[in-house]
Amino acid sequence: MVTNKHDHSHTHDEGSELSEMDLRVRALESLLIEKGYVDPEALDVLIDTYETKIGPRNGAAVVAKAWSDADFKKWLLEDATAAIHSLGFTGRQGEHMIAVENTPDTHNVVVCTLCSCYPWPVLGLPPTWYKSPQYRSRVVIDPRSVLAEFGVMLGDDVAVNVHDSTAETRYLVLPMRPEGSEGWSEEKLATLVSRNSMIGTDVLKPVGKIA
Amino acid sequence: MNSAHDLGGMMGFGPVDTSDQNINFHEEWEARIFALTLAAGATGCWNIDKSRHARESLNPAQYLSSSYYQIWLAGLEKLLLAADLVSSNELADGGRREPPKPVANILKSGDVLNVMMRGSSYERDAVNEPAYKTGDMVLTKNMHPEGHTRIPRYVRNKPGTIERIHGCHVFPDSNAHDNGENPQWLYRVRFSARDIWGEDHPARDSIFVDLWETYLEPR
Question: Is ipTM > 0.95 here?
Answer without folding.
Answer: yes
